[in-house]
Amino acid sequence: MARDPRYDILFEPVRIGPVTTRNRFYQVPHCNGMGYRDPTALATMRAVKAEGGWGVVCTEQVEIHPTGDIAPFIELRNWDEQDVPMLARIADAVHAHGALAGLQLAHNGMNAPNLYSREIPFGPVDLPVFSIYNDPVQARAMDKADFRDLRRWHRDAALRAKRAGYDIVYVYAGKLFGGAMFFLSRRYNTRTDEYGGNLENRARLLKELIEDTKDAVGDTCGVACRISVDELIGEEGLHAAEARDIIAHLAELPDLWDLTLSSWDNDSQTSRFAEEGFQEPFVTGIKALTTKPVVGVGRFTSPDLMVRQIRSGVLDLIGAARPSIADPFLPKKVEEGRLEDIRECIGCNICVSGDHTMTPIRCTQNPSMGEEWRRGWHPERIRAAASPQRVLVVGAGPAGLEAAMMLGRRGYEVALAEKTRTLGGRVARERLLPGLSAWGRVADYRTGQLAGMSHVEVYRESDLTAEDILDFGFEHVVLATGSRWRADGIGRRLLRPVPCEAGAVVLTPDDVMDGVRPAGRTVAIYDDDHYYMGGVLAELLVREGFAVTLLTPAADVSNWMHMTMEQHRVQARLLELGVRILAHHGLTAIGRGGVEAACVFTDRRTAIEAGAVVLVTARLPATALAAELGARRDAWAEAGLRSATTIGDALAPGTIAAAVFAGRRYAEELDEVRDESALPFRREVAGLVAGPMPWPGG
Ligand code: ADP
Ligand code: SF4
User: Which ligand has the nearest atom to the CA of 441?
Assistant: First the structure.
């Protein structure tokens, strides 16, 4: 299919200094949890984006020197010549598919605890580092020699980036990770020399770094400046008006302006807290300050919104991190007029958790993300079935839907049976909870794809038994029957059922999602799960008028959501809605009129008045069908059944991302001939250096 002419503007080339991008789709720098540990996997992931049509594909922030070391995070390094081959591998992989390669140089300044290098961090002033773990490390104020050193390191790193083949080289002053932002900030920069005070002085370092980079590599490389346009903390922070003054001051200096909100949690807000395109008010008008192209983000998945932002003069280039993660082929799909095939980002930030846990990036919508090289998975392609076989998938949750879709793409004849009328499993239910409607895209995308596959039959309202499965006469059955929340309090903290008085009202999240509500107006929620469910149910019930107390053994609500950068927003929202939060408390007893909680440190008891309690602790896999089928093993051969495999939450309850991954994995591995002793994926092991140990014979 040809592309809709409405979208032609998205495919216009744009000049970025001495280089030209083929279109306006611009993958802005983003972290990935692979970094210098998994360079070939990282290069392959970036190459797939280039193959998918992005005009520019950037690295994550790349450290330029050991004095700006953000260990334990494993972002790429460009410290010296040893790093060039690794950087070149990425640039080459991107070039192989016709995209420009961008590299984001970063010296993290006061954000760098230097735990690996043990160098003393530096910044505008003497202050503790602004690092994620509140490390007991203090930065020192830079002196004249430090400025000279920093500028030299930055220049050398730019030259190495050019030698590695990059087309665009960044100077980074965004999100407080780019050390130059600490200088721009009035909060941090209280210097009285030529690098502090008025705006011109605070912008001096950034100006020098841009000039140095232009001078070093500007003949062949576009020089981009990534800058924060607001910290969202009011007048005290770098705010919109001031950011505009800085951009106006440096307007024509870089070849491209890349606009972000600071810090990262503001830039990459989730769908629970921000709509697609939410950055528009912050970036509108900036193009009027410069003739250079401007790129901005906003979780863009709708080409109409992209076109509108370009036509109305908000942006020149459509920046994307998450939409390019969820669908590396988004530009190609727009180009080929296949909008219904776009796998839209759901805005859950599971991708961010990869970086925060220093493990390869993963994505709820795109299970191949991070697995392109490790497992050889491609977001759009999958090998054809080795032989024609028939597969029955039981359960149309994220795991079953993904398995059915990918088995269908492989060419198997597939039947997908779902107990209920609605496809989507847990997603069909959870999408109705406050703030989670975009998560429904997990089901919508797959349901839409299945509709176009003639060899995949979908059976709704089909609650299958083992007998039904044997009657189907299929060779393989996938049991993706999901899980149910426990009702006994057992979870991380409680390993035995919580004592419960007869007549007490105990609900699970499944009950609440089924519409069950307690008779009284007071509810306690015990959250020992720590992801979204406890906080979301608190929000739901308080909005319905219940007086809600949320107790949790953790230090704060939805504690794991630090990994998705949402925890502070969840807590703020619940506090604003009037939810009482009792942190550091476990549940010790449930009574008819309330629950008893105990401080996790002192065991001091607190009574909480509540007409009902909702237990958000752990889930039980739905294994009954698998057990029933196992008990009929003697009948398998006659029925033609060769394998029965339990996947997703039915095997071990986890994230939606894990369930989708499980579905993909089943589809990938069916009929695969494997060496039993081989690891399930490839890895890259660091080469050993040649030469003697420091103390031969010691
Ligand atoms: P996952 O996250 O692993 O995909 P879900 O709980 O989201 O798991 O989905 C499981 C789906 O399986 C639900 O939609 C449920 O209705 C369905 N299901 C469970 N048991 C059966 C069964 N015996 N026959 C058909 N569908 C079933
Ligand atoms: Fe979007 Fe979630 Fe995928 Fe991240 S993990 S790209 S937020 S769908």
Answer: 2
